[in-house]
Structures are given as structure tokens and as C-alpha cells.
Amino acid sequence: MTKYFFYLLLIPALSFAQANNDETSIVYKVLGKNGLLLFVFLLFFVYAYKNSVKLFAWIEDQTYGTRDYIIQKFELLFIEVKPNHVTYALLGLSFGIAIIIMLVFFVFGKFTAGIFLGFFAGFVGWKTPKPIMDFFVNRRISTYEDQMVDGLNLLSNGLRAGLSVPQSIGMVVEELPAPISQEFGMVLQQTKIGVTLDEAFENLAKRVPTQDNDMFVSSVSILRETGGNLAEVFDTIAEVIRERVRLKQKINTFVAQGKMQGGLIASMPFMMGAYFASTDPTFTDLLFGTIAGNILLVAALILNFIGAWAMWKVIQIKV
Fold first, then answer.
1. Do 289 and 110 meet the contact criterion of CB atoms below 8 Å apart?
2. Most-buried pick from 32, 109, 201, 293 (CB within 10 A)?
3. How many domains does the chain have?
4. Which residue from 5, 8, 12, 46 is spatially nearest to 32, judged by alpha carbons?
């Protein structure tokens, strides 16, 4: 239905565009300029009414859904933040930055460029918080993975010394820094309020969804039920993780050059644009002062980001 709607919308749009240059269009003669605008409005109204459930669900996901997603990521980072502050930050990053850019360009008489760049900045400001929060969460998970070897060694030593599993976890909380101390501290807090140890470890696996953590949690749950030497199992898991970390470090060394090259290529259009604008300000008048130039500018920015994202995905090697 959506395809036919856009085909139907294309008729008055083309007629309206033709009417600006030639008022002999059949649709223009029948409906007139106001009639065309009213027809387009009715088409949008019918389409929105027919898809109102999906439309409101999409709006809710892009507003409250984005806010709740960011709040959830803050909880995973063990950072307390008020929902109202997140809402204000999202509004500032999207509408606030867009309005500032528009006003700056309007002051210099660049109305078309201000509108295009303002809308583009607003879109980017609304979409970037999610990837940024994902980046911080993934970096925390990576730090947790690097600390697991030390954590498992402490657990193993504690068990060999005659301590229980909760007491050994307490050693990890006291001796090691965040984030592993925070995550294991959460396990202890949950057990103190009545949550079973197995369930607390399952919650840990949900908060830090890594293969090594899943292996650790599964081994604890299985051996607590069937019996076995947890200390030896922890030593084995620590050795596996240690080899994986060593392999990951080798891969990071090999792809470091690719990361640098990708960053230079992605930033080259911005550096060239800044150079030409500084040497000859009139060189970019067509790009920022015309509709066609603004469209090409937005398209170039989108293609540049797509290319940077593709290069980034190529050098991401999972171990």
C-alpha cells in the first residue's frame, strides 16, 4: 500500500513542480494551486490514519524508546541518571543543535544551507546517543574480559584456601578495580536480598554477555549441582581466556594500521573542505548557498559515514 501511496503522491508533486514553470498542466487546471496542496494534505492524512498504529509505535520508539534505551545502558555502566536529564540531553543534542546551526547560517543570510544542515545535524544528534552508549558499554565489557583472568585466579586461590564461593567473590570485590568489582559486588548484593547464587550469576551473564562469562557462569552452576573442583575449573577457564586475550592483542596490532588509514580517509573530505574554505571563501558558495549544493553536501556526508562504517566493520575481527 505504501508503494501505491507514493505513486499517487507523485502525480500532484510533479504537477505542482510543472506549474511553477508552465501553468498548462491538466491537474493544475482542474485543481489549481490551492487544490493541489489540499490534495497532498489529504493524501498524507489518509496514509497517516491508515497506518496510525505503526506511526505512533514508531514515534514512541524514537522518543521514549530511545530514552529508556539510554537509561538502561547507564544502568549497565553503574551510573545513576534521572530520566528527565536524559530527555533534556536528547532534546538539546537534536533540536537544540539544529536551531543553533540554523540561526548561525540565517545571520549570514544562508537560509537554504541553514535549513538543510540544521535538519541533518538534528537527525545526527538524535541518532548518535545510542551508538555512543553502545561504545561505552562495549568498552566496559572489554575491560571486564581483560580482568577476568585476575578475577578467576583470585577465586581459585580463595577456594583453595578454604573460603566459600561468596567469600571468594568478596575477595575479588575488594582487590580488583571496576568494572569486575562492581559486577561481582552486584552478585553479592543480590544474594544478600534473597536471590540464589545461581540466579545472581545468571543475571551477571545477562549484564555482561560474553562467551567467557557464559562459560564461567555455566561452570559454576553445573559444578555446584554435580560437585567437582571449582578451583581447577577456574584455572582452566583462566588459561583459555589468557590465550584468547593474547590472540586478540595480536589481532589489534595487525589492524592498527588499517584503523589509522580508515580514520585518515574518513576525515580527508572535512580537512579538504576546511582548507578550500579558508583559502578561498567563495569556493564553497555553490555548495552551501544553493539547493543543489546542499543536497550534494548531505549526500556526500551520508556516503562518507557509510564508507567509514564499512571500513570499521572490515577491521572488526571477533576472536
1. yes
2. 201
3. 3
4. 12
